[in-house]
């Protein structure tokens, strides 16, 4: 009979090293999140739009119309920010798990800026139609948000 302690500890340490790489990547994503909104061609457009969007209900026709006024600034934002499904040819299904974590944090924080904040659950529900993800994918997002205490 052998003692597996040494092998198990080596495995634990390796998993920790790998997970630390993930943490470092998420920290980088958090640090640079939406930096493009702080410079042109996005800044002036978001300066005008952000106060209006705050008063609109997320996902409504009026909200969608207000987004259209961002025009090329929003196109640029999606192009340079991988945490948006619009960045990817395959939409949300082109994203990786780290993109999805940033996406959920973004949806949570964005909802908190709205006067009628209905919560992250509402955003996940509305965005199922917007981005075309199925029930199983929606449940994955909800489980993750619940684990983080964001619902």
List its traits:
mainly alpha; 151 residues; single chain; 7 helices
Q: Please tally the helical runs, counting DSSP H or I stretches of 4 or more residues.
A: 7
Mean pLDDT: 95
N/C terminus separation: 48 Å
Give the DSSP E fraction (strand runs of 2 or more residues).
under 5%
Instruction: List the helices and strands in order.
Output: HHHHHHH
- Helical fraction equals 55-70%
Instruction: Report the structural category.
Output: mainly alpha
> What ranges have pLDDT less than 50 throughout 5 or more consecutive residues?
none
Number of E-type strands? 0
Give Rg in angstroms.
Answer: 19 Å
The coarse overall form would be elongated
**Largest β sheet strand count, sense and barrel closure:** none
Number of domains: 1
What do these coordinates show?
This protein is mainly alpha-helical. It has one domain. Helices cover 66% and strands 0% of the residues. Helix 6 (120-131) packs antiparallel against helix 7.
Task: Tell me briefly what this model is.
The protein is mostly helical and 151 residues long.
How is the topology of this model organized?
Layout: H1 5-32, H2 43-54, H3 61-68, H4 71-80, H5 97-113, H6 120-131, H7 135-147
């Amino acid at each position: 009979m052998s003692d597996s302690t040494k092998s198990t500890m080596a495995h634990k340490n390796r998993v920790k090293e790998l997970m630390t790489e993930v943490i470092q990547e998420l920290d980088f994503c958090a640090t640079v999140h939406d930096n493009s909104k702080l410079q042109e061609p996005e800044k002036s457009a978001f300066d005008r739009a952000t106060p209006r969007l705050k008063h609109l209900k997320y996902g409504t026709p009026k909200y969608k119309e207000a987004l259209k006024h961002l025009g090329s600034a929003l196109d640029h934002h999606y192009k340079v920010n991988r945490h948006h499904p619009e960045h990817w040819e395959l939409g949300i299904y082109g994203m990786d798990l780290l993109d999805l974590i940033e996406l959920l944090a973004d949806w949570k924080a964005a909802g908190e800026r709205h006067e009628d904040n209905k919560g992250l659950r509402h955003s996940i529900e509305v965005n199922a139609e917007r981005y075309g993800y199925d029930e199983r994918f929606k449940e994955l997002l909800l489980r993750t948000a619940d684990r983080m205490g964001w619902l």
